[in-house]
């Protein structure tokens, strides 16, 4: 994943939407996709500095949540990407 993808939130949503669509075509369930989104969110939280205001806000919300709440955020991000 290039840093360009993370620079603009709209680019990130488009990137995520493409990955979700690929996962669906491979036969992955919504639960599996959401679990992968949770793992990606955990990785980004630990390893990547937010590049814009939207990502900073998501990080602050992520950091306030417990594991169950973070899983909800992950599912919502998948839905947001699908809606875009």
Automatic annotation (TrEMBL):
It holds the Pfam family DUF3243. InterPro entries: DUF3243, Uncharacterised_YmfJ, YmfJ/YflH_sf. It comes from the Bacteria. This is DUF3243 domain-containing protein.
